[in-house]
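Lab manual, section 2.4: Encoding a predicted structure.

Procedure: take the sequence of the chain (348 residues), apply the prediction step described in section 2.3, and record the output as structure tokens. A sample record is shown.
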Amino acid sequence: MKKTIAFVIVMILVFLLVGCSDFQNSSVEKYEAPTAVFASSNLNTVEESSTDAEPQIIGNISASGTCGDNLTWSITDDDALYIIGTGQMDEIQWGTNWRNNYTQKSIRSVIIGDGVENISKNAFTGFSVLTNVLIGNSVTSIDGGAFSGCKGLETITIPDSVTKIENTAFSGCENLSNISLNSHLKTIGDFAFNDCFSLTNVTVPDSVTTIGKGVFQDCTSLTTVSLGNSITEVSENAFTQCEKLNSINIPDSVITIGGYAFANCFALESITLGKSVTSIAERAFAYDDALQSIYIPKSTVYLGKCAFEFSETSILEVYYEGTESEWSSITGSDDFYLKNKTIHYNAY
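Recorded output:
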């Protein structure tokens, strides 16, 4: 009898041990940790990912609020800022929403959902460690100063929905080396990319009709620029102090070149002006001492004061599309810097 009882007890223990083991293994196999979460209505809580949330917030939320009639913002514990919802973003004032001394020095990623229609003025000004930005496909404008002073930002893609980049939007992004502009962009505002010291090349798409003054001023690493065929004016100081820019072709769409537009481009060796240029403002190409040749169309009727002010060793050859008499009819006061150069007429 005792042997029977002992056997039964042993069997029960074996069953319990095996059963518990199988249950634990089954639980581990079936459990899947959520790979994405979105904000619940309660701060500091998270829920499993939902197809209704766009984008999905990953991580624990440490702060949140509203930034538009139908927009919410959330900061997660991995220093990411999410803006989700639909409609226009409110202007973000200092000390409100996410803008304060702590966030300026901590936010590393910004994710803007597909329903957001604009990036408001000064929204991320001075976010010094911001390195990653994802802009949703409903944003139509990047407003003034939105990313100015974001020194850690190295690359950014502007989605096709954006038609306007406002004044100083990326000014002072010292490490921005690559900017991808979309083919629907219309306007780039004043000083939008000035002081982007690491920017090396820029392609302005054909869709752009206006580039503002000082737009790429002091982009000291810029070597290559391609201007689209819809721009009618290269505004004043647009490329001033682009020290490494070595050549520039002005498209036929351009009518006027503003004052100091290409001044202090010390590496600029060759300039070809489009066949619609009528006016070149004062000191547009001043101090470009590496210049060896320039092509001027007969459409040009005005050369501003010292438009080509440079040293005596600059510009060996001037190629002019028109006749000598047409050249003589150009008004302005730049003769001093061109009078001793060789001018080739009917040479375009």
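Check your result against the sample. The longest strand covers residues 61-68.
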